[in-house]
Amino acid sequence: MRVATQTLLLGATTAAFAQQQKVLASFGNSAQKPIEHVNDAFRNPIDHITEALGEMPAEAKGLWNEMSLLVPGFLQKAGNLISRPKPHTRRPDSEWDHIVRGADVQSMWVETDGVQHRKVDGPLEAYDLRAKVVDPSSLGIDKVKQYSGYLDDNENDKHLFYWFFESRNDPKTDPLVLWLNGGPGCSSMMGLFMELGPSSVDANGSPKFNEHSWNSNASVIFLDQPVNVGYSYSSSSVSNTVAASKDIYALLTLFFEQFPEYSTQPFHIFGESYAGHYIPVFASEILSHKNRNINLQSIGIGNGLTDPLVQYTQYRPMACGKGGYDAVLEPSECQSMDNALPRCESLLRACYNSESAWNCVPATIYCNNAMIGPYQRTGMNVYDIREECKDRENLCYTETAWISQYLNQKNVMKGLGVEVDDYESCNSDINRNFVFQGDWGKPFHRLVPDLLKQIPVLIYAGDADYICNWLGNKEWTEALEWSGKEDYNSVELEDLSLENEAYGQVKSSGNFTFMRIYQAGHMVPFNQPEGSLDFFNRWIGGEWWRS
């Protein structure tokens, strides 16, 4: 699998943040003229941008002019919001073991205390859920009960692929977890096979049992979202987090309707990287429905991007020796990052104040060039500050190629009921669309205080990651304005241990918990399988939020 060198991804195994020594600044090969001097060759990109974002405010023109000079090819890239439909073949209903129609679920009524009300809130009429029983022996992935299938939004031609694994322990009582990789635009099959799923994949493209899988004591759903990621497909696209949240609510509602035996167990959402955007929005969408069959108990975000304004302040310290590892950059480069930070913060504040793409796109471009670019040009792995990026064509990790090899096997695709022609780990078009719709820089941390009133929130971070580093994640949790801020900030980090050996640190107060995981990069379960399973089991068991 290749990811274009200009792609910047925050995904789990997430993916390539422009793999070569170029940042978003490598969008084109020639300098561009400012917007007010755009010639005929550049009229089309501007037309596309205004079609997507609306008319450019007068106050934004100067900023976009500056970005077009700072980033060669900026206008063409911003105006080229691509949605390439995946070749696919829809399987007939007869090939599925279960189909639940959203319209049927939407029409169900129940009585509570003598009052009639809908069983679940909608709208669900346009959605269907298809499922098939997966034979573990045919694919060699664990021995537990498994389902795979699609959530269909028939009105908008969107089809999200999922793969469910029962708990190895006691599925009748164990919790159920939804896992989301980031990107935006990366498949959760990467998390399945490289991090926390029941099997990894070896160099021969063969499954290898994972004794530290998170389905040791929980049932887990791995979801390819948004559409056109992994095995999912659509003729249209989703390019913002809020739009994606509607699909997640529908998926879970119909899944629990089809499989009610899992609906009463505690349900949790976990994910990493750009899931720091996704999960607060998805959880808020679920909790906004009064009549629901989703027993959401907590959320967990690993090495996430949640509050860019605060997190971008910690790139310089992490790159310059303040995060627990040796400095990667020279003092002069560290000083350049210091010099650029005030402008980055100013641009992000404008994004936060307006939440307009006209402000958020330039903020993302400038800040990524200034605060991530210097590190990336060293050739070091943005996902692990301890090592070079040795396999640039495969997101710095050769394991991603092995996973793609396995998931492109015809027998695997047939066994899962896959409807697309091939599998890709990450979709760079989706990533670019999220960036140029302004989603990247938005302040989704603002949803967390309300979530904390209702459910526990875990933020954990491998301390060797650069792209969503632990310093920034700790910083935003302590900067967050919420009712328990004073008590939370007064708590010191304590050892997080397994068999009397510390593998990290934890601080917790009220419904808010932060963990630093030692010697782990962006994908914590990949580097620390035993430790990650330990804190995961302890979290879903309520150790930090039921005291």
Characterise the protein shown here.
- Helix content is 36%, strand content 17%.
- The strands form three sheets. Strands 1, 4, 5, 6, 7, 10, 11, 12, 13, 14, 15, 16 and 17 form a 13-stranded mixed β-sheet that branches. It has a two-stranded antiparallel sheet with strand order 2-3.
- It contains 20 helices and 17 strands.
- It starts with 39 loop residues before the first helix and ends in a 7-residue tail after the last helix.
Number of separate helices = 20
Structural class: alpha/beta
Could you say which overall geometry the principal axes of the C-alpha atoms support? globular
Low-confidence regions: 1-8, 11-43
Sheet-strand content, in percent, reads 15-25%
The averaged pLDDT comes out at: 89
Major beta sheet, specifics?
13 strands, mixed
Rg calc: 23 Å
Distance between the termini: 46 Å
How many distinct beta strands?
A: 17
Q: What portion of residues is helical?
A: 25-40%
Distinctive features:
single chain, disordered N terminus, 547 residues, alpha/beta, two-stranded antiparallel ribbon, 13-stranded mixed sheet
